[in-house]
Amino acid sequence: MLDENRLWPPPHEVAYLHSDTLRVGGRAFGAAIRDVVRRIGTDGVDVAAPRFSRDGHSALVVASLLDISAEQVHDAILSAAPAHPGVTIEETGDITASDASDQAKSDDLSRAGVLSVPVSLLVLLFAFGAIVAAFVPLLLALTAVAAAFGLLGPISQAIPIDDSVETVLVLIGMAVGVDYALFYVMRSREERRRGRPSHDALERTVRTSGRTVIVSGTTVIIAMAAMFLVRAKVFDSLAVATITVVACAVAGSVTVLPGLLELLGTRIDRGRIPFLPHLRTDQTDSRFWTTVVDRVLRRPVLSVALSAGLLVALALPALGLKVTSPDDTTLVPQNVPALRALADVRRDFPGTAEPARVVATVPQQSWEALHFEGLRLARLAVARWIAHAPVSATSNDDGSAAALALPLAGAGNNKQSRHAISVLRHELIPQTIGRIPGVRTAVTGVVAEDVDFTHQLKHGLPYVLVFVLLLAFLLLLVTFRSLVVPVKAMILNLLSVGASYGVLVLVFQHHWAEPLLGFTSNGAIISWLPLFLFVVLFGLSMDYHVFILSRVREAVDSGMRSDDAVRYGITATAGVVTSAALVMFAVFSIFGSLSALDIKQAGVGLAAAVLIDATIVRAVLLPASMKLLGDWNWYLPRVLQRLPGSKLEAPPARDPA
C-alpha cells in the first residue's frame, strides 16, 4: 500500500552532536550546531530545526534528502568535526546505516570464505596425510558452492532471495561437500588397502558409499524442503539455497567425483607428508575407537543413561528460549561508525526509535475524515505511551491515501514494542481511522514484521515437524528395512537438536560468553534461527546416522551377529566421521567468530550440534542403544516385508574380536 500510493517519506540522514562537558545552550556547542546546519543546508536538502536531548548534552540535526546523495551529506557533516574539537560529531541515517550494515555483512562473508578453505584443507591433511587426497573433498565442496551460486541467478528471477542466503549457502555447501567426498575417498582407499585393484575398489565404493550419499543427501533435502511450509520469504529463499547446494554436492559425488578418482587411481596418495600425524581414515581397526566402543558395549545401560542424561541436561535451558528479530544496530557490532552513531541517536532521542507505519486508503470524499482521525490516532498513541513524538505523516497527491510514522516505545525488539503494535492494530486504529466508511488500513515496520513473522512461524512449526519426521522415517524405513532404526534415529537426532538449542540459550541469552565471542547479548535468539537449525541439524545428523548404519547393515547382511556388526560399523567409520565432524566444526566455528549476531548464533549452534552428534551420540548413545536392542534393531513387521530394498555387498571376513 505504501508503494502503490507513493507514501514513503524521503530518506533521512542525521548529524549527532554530543559533549560530556558542554551543553547545547553554550556558545561552543551552538557554534557547532550552526556550522553543521550551514554545511548541509544546500539545494536538494530539507533541514529540520535542531532537536536537543533531555540532559542538554546532545543535539540532532535531521536532513531530508530531496535531490542529493547521502554520501554528500555524510561528507559535509563530518567535515565540520575538525573545527569543533570540544563536540563529537557523528553521522548516520537511513541510507548510511543500511550501507554500513550491508558492508559489514559482506566483509564477514568474505572473511569466512577466505578462512574456511585453508582451515578445511588443514583438517583434511591431518585426515589423509596426503596433499592430493586432501584436495579432492575440498574441490567437491568448492565446486558445489560455485554451481549453487550460479543456479541461484535464474532462480532468483522467480523467488526473492534473502541476503542472508549467501552465508548459509557457503556454510552448508562446505559441510556436505566435504562430507560426501570423504565418504568416497575413505571407502576407496580402504578397499585398495584390502588388496582390490583401483578400478574394482572404486566400483565397490560407488555401489556402497554412492548409495549412502544419495540417501543422506535426499534426507537433507527433505529436511530443507520443510521450510517451504512456513510460507515466509526468508525461509523460502533459505530452502531454495540449501536444497540447491546439497543437490549440487550429491550430483558431483555420484558423477564427477568417481570420474576424478578413476583418473587419479593410486596417485591420490601422492604428496604424502611423512611427519604429519593423521587420523588414518582408511583404517577399520582404530585402537582408540575400538577401545571406546568396546567399553560402551560392555556397559550399555550405564552408557545410555549417562549420555542421554547429559543431552537432556544440555537441552533443559532450551525451555527458556526467547526469539526476536532485532534491527541492524543489534545484529552488527557497534565498532561500525554509522551503526554506533545510530545506537547513540536512539538512546538519546526516543523519537527516532524504529517506527510503526500506519497506512490507510479512503474514498476521496473522506479525505478530511482521514486527516482528522489520523491526528487523533497520533495523539492517542503518544498519550498511551506506545509511541514517541514527533509523529510524521505523508499523503498522496489526490488525498486518497496517507501514512503515519509512529516512533515506537521500547527498544524496537522487546515486549513493549510488540505490545504497542497490538494496541495499534486492535484498539486505536478501530477507534479512529478504522471508523471511516470504505477505509482500508494496515500496519507495517520492523516490529510489525517481527510480530507477523513470529505468528507465521508458530503456525507453520507443527507442519514442519510432521513433514520432516514422517518423510525421514519413511526414507530410513525403506533404506534399512527396519521399523526400529528410523524411530531410534528420530529420537537421537531430536536429542542432538535439543542439546544444541540449550547451548544457544546458555551462550546468547546470558552475558558470560560476551567477552569470549565478542558480542552484546540482547537476551534472545534470532527469530528465524530455531526452525532453520532444526531442519539443518536434523539433515546433517542424519548424514552420519545413515553412513554408520549402512556399514552396520552391510555387516548384518553378511551374517555377523548384531553386536559384532555394531562394533564393525562404528570402528570402520570412525576415521571418516571424525574427519568430517572436524571439518564441519572448524567451518562452523569460523562463522561463529563473525561479527553479525545472526550468523554468529548460527555458527555456534551448528558447531555445538556437530560436536555433540559426533561424540556423545555416535560414539556412545548409538552403539549402546543398538547393543540393548540386539536383533530387534532390524525388526520389520510381516506386513512391511514387501518394501523395496537393496542388499549391500558384504564386508570381507574378519575376526569379530
Quick description:
With 657 residues, the protein is α+β, with helices and mostly antiparallel strands. The protein contains 20 helices and eleven strands.
E-strand count: 11
Q: What is the helix fraction of residues, given as a range?
A: 55-70%
| Main beta sheet | 5 strands, antiparallel
Choose one word for the global shape. Answer: elongated
Cα gyration radius (Å): 30 Å
Strand content: 5-15%
Number of helices: 20
Mean pLDDT reading: 84
Low-confidence stretches: 647-657
SS-derived structural category: alpha+beta
Provide an overview of this structure:
By secondary structure, the protein is an alpha+beta fold. It contains 20 helices and eleven strands. It has helices at residues 27-40, 70-78, 94-128, 131-155, 165-193, 198-225, 233-254, 256-264, 287-298, 300-315, 328-331, 337-348, 367-383, 415-431, 446-480, 484-508, 514-517, 529-557, 562-592, 597-629, and strands at residues 12-18, 45-47, 51-52, 58-65, 88-93, 323-324, 355-361, 392-395, 401-407, 440-444, 525-526. Strands 1, 2, 3, 4 and 5 form a five-stranded antiparallel sheet that branches. The protein has a four-stranded antiparallel sheet with strand order 8-9-7-10. Strand 3 and strand 4 form a beta hairpin.
Topology:
Layout: E1 12-18, H1 27-40, E2 45-47, E3 51-52, E4 58-65, H2 70-78, E5 88-93, H3 94-128, H4 131-155, H5 165-193, H6 198-225, H7 233-254, H8 256-264, H9 287-298, H10 300-315, E6 323-324, H11 328-331, H12 337-348, E7 355-361, H13 367-383, E8 392-395, E9 401-407, H14 415-431, E10 440-444, H15 446-480, H16 484-508, H17 514-517, E11 525-526, H18 529-557, H19 562-592, H20 597-629
Helix pairs in contact: 3-4, 3-5, 3-12, 3-19, 4-5, 4-7, 5-6, 5-7, 5-18, 5-19, 6-7, 6-15, 6-18, 9-19, 9-20, 10-16, 10-20, 15-16, 15-18, 16-18, 16-20, 18-19, 18-20, 19-20
